[in-house]
Amino acid sequence: MPDLLIKNAKIFYDNYLQPAEIVIDEGKVIKIAKEADVIAGEVIDAAGSLVLPAGIDVHVHFREPGLTHKEDWYTGSCAAAAGGIATVVDHPNTIPPTIDKKSFEEKLKLASRKSIVDFGIHGGVTNNIEKLTELWGEGVTAFGEIFMAESTGGLNIDEITLEKALGILNELGAIAVIHAEDDTIRLECEALLKNDMSPSSHSRARPNICEATAVQKVVDLLRKTGARGHICHVSAFESVGVLGRDRYIAREKSLSPITCEVTPHHLFLSTRDWERLGCYGKMNPPLRDRRSVKFLLNSLNDGTIDIVASDHAPHCESEKDMDIKTAPSGVPGVETLMPLMLMAVKKNLLPLGRMVDATSAAPARIFGLDRHSKGRLKVGFDADLIIVDTKKVTTIKGELLHGKVGWTPFEGVEAIFPDITISRGNVIWDGEISAPRGRGNFLPGTGKYMATSGHH
Ligand SMILES: NC(=O)N[C@@H](CC(=O)O)C(=O)O
Ligand SMILES: [Zn+2]
Ligand SMILES: [Zn+2]
User: Pocket of ligand 1, candidates 311, 312, 319, 320: which has the most ligand atoms within 8 Å of its Cβ, to mutate?
Assistant: First the structure.
């Protein structure tokens, strides 16, 4: 008898919403049919709600080890589950940073003990060029974010180191995940604004051209070295222009595309929100004006932007409640990503199919998580699913979220939260967290398999 039957579901299949029943056994989807005609150990009646692939958030900062007053693997993964995300990839700017075998093993142990969702771990790139191969063999998902400019953690590197690292990543066949901002432009602008204490000065300290210049530089370096690249959190319309041009050339030359992501805060907030948010609106890259915001949404629609990722970067209120120069950069977002995207679909800002691809199938494909059967509602794939009643529009409240910091830049914004999140056939969220600590599995990157299978 299979473990679970979801009946009265509506699924998005063949570009249509269709009624379906989904049969799950041993964590996998084993049958999808109009009428499954089986008796299962357990039955969930979706009562006509949508059943979609759970989200995959490839950009979170879960802050452990070292910064657990902001977040840890348990609270971060609970926030993910409550927001409809069943897989995350963590970034390296923890304390210690994830830059060698030892720090990687430490993070892996903590995450394995505490995470309730499946996870990958990215390796960091600093002056650890000689450690990249060992990190790859340990099973990091990819390398990054590689900081071209200062951001939380101070892991930024210069262009010479970046080029060297990209050469090695090309040999490994690993993806370079880039935080693209130009540090020279940042320093120049910051110097000019050193007496400007208005929160909105942060957007001018890191203007559009600061990002676009770095995007152009790293595109050139990726093409020169041959390394595969993914650009984090693009925010300026000029950057998307640079990437669109490269994509066109890449297609003509049959090169692998450089992929990119956008965050919900760059899609749904703008420089207008400085007034409401004050220093809580400080993040890198910063809030942009309406022109970029519109362009980002169009580019997500037409596929120039591949995926949505949260850049979940929590800081405590006591840390944010400082002057704009002292406050740390970053906002929480893992729990609100899917609810905001579902709301965007309801408002006709984006077709459902595009939203589903950008939050599940595409991140899985780009980061090789599809080899772990992630990212699709499909027979043979992991039963990582959400059940959503799209009629249930609520407003986001920081105090109801499950991360540690208790605030959100989206306070009062309309959203659609999932009723149920299922990970490998287990209900991990149904209005409360229903998963034991440490049930989440590590999803090793391809370097691990190459190391164990003995060829390179
Ligand atoms: N986005 C941010 O402003 N901050 C991130 C780091 C980063 O992604 O740059 C953080 O870890 O706090
Ligand atoms: Zn970043
Ligand atoms: Zn980040």
Answer: 311
- Rounded Cα distance between 204 and 344, Å, is 28
Q: What are the structural domains of the chain? A: 54-372 (3.20.20.140)
d(CA 205, CA 210): 9
> Any bridge partners for residue 260, and if so which?
231
Which residue, among 27, 78, 53, has the nearest Cα to 435 in the 3D structure?
Answer: 78
Burial class of residue 353, CB neighbours in 10 A (0-12, 13-18, 19+): middle
| Residue from 25, 311, 357, 384 carrying the catalytic annotation | 311
Classify burial at 438, counting beta carbons within 10 Å of its beta carbon; exposed 0-12, middle 13-18, buried 19 or more.
middle
Q: Is the C-beta atom of 93 inside 6 A of ligand 1?
A: yes
Nearest to 358 by CA among 349, 369, 366, 368: 366
**From the CA of 153, which ligand is nearest?**
1
Q: What is the Cα–Cα distance from 40 to 96, expressed in whole angstroms?
A: 46
pLDDT in tens, 360-398: 999 999 999 999 999 999 999 999 999 999 999 999 999
Q: What are the pLDDT digits (tens) for 73-114?
A: 999 999 999 999 999 999 999 999 999 999 999 999 999 999
Measured in angstroms, how far is the CA atom of residue 239 from the centroid of ligand 3? Answer: 17
Q: Is 59 annotated as a binding residue?
A: yes
Give how far Cα 7 sits from Cα of 4, 34, 379, 420, Å.
10, 9, 16, 14
Ligand 1 centroid to residue 354 C-alpha, Å: 26
DSSP secondary structure, 45-95, as one string: E-TT-EEEEPEEEEEE---TTT-TTT--HHHHHHHHHHTTEEEEEE-S-SS
Are the CB atoms for 8 and 353 separated by under 8 Å? no
Asked if residue 402 belongs to a known ligand binding site, the reply is no
Host H or E run for residue 450: helix 446-453
The answer to whether the annotation marks 370 as part of a ligand binding site is no
ipTM of the complex: 0.99
Catalytic-residue membership of 37: no
